[in-house]
């Protein structure tokens, strides 16, 4: 029995390490804790929006890996990141929100990678909810209500606008589209974030432990003036 337990430790650590690699990489793109509007703001700030499809492509694969490992070894759901301001679930929520925002504000852009990443995120959360016995609506209506308020949504939009993110729609026009995407993952993300007491990031719901929301800080783009 002891041998079996020891044998599982490398397997668990490998699965944990694969998960945390992308979570750590996201810190450079969205700060810590990550936040969907901040991802788009930073990509706009450093003029990398043409390459944002790579981000969603990578997170589609990440979702597949986490879906498999965290249902096979459910204890991984509770394994925390090495730093308190990072968390796998908050990172996933930030990427899903970034995808939903991009679809809502930029309908003319190519969205194959974005849609696939969103779909992979839904499936990942559904699989984890199934293994934990959490009920959910597998096919919510796009007009169903979400818990994120319109005022908080506007704060995120302002963050994107401040750093030059291009928008084809106004916030008022984009809101129903964003809400229609978020309704697919918000409930489960909020429930799991509360269950594991994840770092309280913006747009991530309440926690069991009452702590103030931590917002990521956008670095100042300092350039030489000579």
Descriptive report:
- This protein has 8 helices and no strands.
- The chain has helices at residues 2-30, 36-45, 52-72, 88-105, 112-132, 150-162, 171-182, 186-195.
- The longest helix is centred in the N-terminal third of the chain and has 29 residues, at 2-30.
- The model has no long low-confidence stretch (mean pLDDT 92).
Q: Would you spell out the secondary-structure blueprint of this structure?
A:
Layout: H1 2-30, H2 36-45, H3 52-72, H4 88-105, H5 112-132, H6 150-162, H7 171-182, H8 186-195
Helix pairs in contact: 1-3, 1-4, 2-4, 2-6, 3-5, 4-5, 4-7
Fraction of residues in β-strands: under 5%
Classify the secondary structure makeup into a structural class: mainly alpha
How many β-strands, per DSSP?
0
Most strands sheet: none
The helix fraction, in percent, is 55-70%
Using the CA coordinates, give the radius of gyration.
18 Å
Summarize the structure.
With about 230 residues, the protein is mostly helical. It is about 60% helix and about 0% strand. Helix 3 runs parallel beside helix 5.
List its traits.
226 residues; 8 helices; mainly alpha
């Amino acid at each position: 029995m002891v041998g079996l337990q020891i044998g599982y430790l490398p397997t668990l650590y490998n699965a944990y390490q694969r998960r945390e690699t992308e979570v750590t990489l996201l810190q450079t793109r969205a700060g810590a804790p990550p936040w969907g509007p901040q991802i788009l703001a930073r990509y706009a700030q450093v003029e990398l929006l043409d390459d944002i499809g790579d981000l969603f492509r990578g997170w589609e694969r990440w979702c597949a890996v986490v879906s498999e490992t965290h249902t096979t070894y459910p204890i991984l759901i509770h394994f925390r990141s090495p730093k308190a301001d990072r968390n796998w679930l908050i990172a996933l929520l930030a990427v899903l929100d970034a995808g939903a925002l991009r679809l809502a504000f930029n309908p003319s852009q190519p969205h194959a990678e974005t849609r696939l990443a969103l779909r992979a995120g839904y499936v990942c959360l559904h699989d984890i909810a199934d293994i934990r016995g959490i009920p959910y609506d597998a096919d919510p209506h796009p007009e169903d209500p979400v818990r994120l308020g319109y005022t908080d949504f506007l704060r995120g939009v302002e963050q994107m606008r401040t750093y030059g993110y291009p928008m084809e729609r106004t916030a008022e026009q984009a809101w129903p589209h964003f809400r229609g995407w978020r309704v697919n993952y918000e409930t489960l993300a909020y429930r799991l974030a509360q269950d594991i007491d994840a770092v309280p990031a913006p747009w991530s719901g309440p926690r069991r432990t009452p702590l103030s929301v931590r917002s990521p800080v956008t670095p100042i783009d300092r350039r030489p003036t000579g």
